[in-house]
Amino acid sequence: MKSIHDDTCPSFEGTLELIGRRWTGSVLQAAAQGARRFGEYRALIEGISDRLLSQRLKELDAAGLIERTVIPTTPVQTRYALTPDGHALIQALLPLARWSMRRTGPRGARRVPSA
Fold it and tell me: Which CATH number is 62's domain given?
């Protein structure tokens, strides 16, 4: 058995910290649903502030999960899209999302085991 401090542990922890940040899952889900422009993300993610949405998009871009493209028009347009790694992460997270839904139900209320 390998130590928990082997080469994979820091990488895995970094990934968990990134996707565990508030609103990151929602931003990734909005991208997977087809959001491309900032306003589309904001419309799909109820309750997120512009500042936090901008921050999460920058973090996901820096992590290589979302690609930011600037289109030099008047006015300038900025588009965001999942990268291949972003798509792969969404696919990897789907089993976890299904597990969570079975465990907590559709609105996040923890189910009480029946006696």
Answer: 1.10.10.10
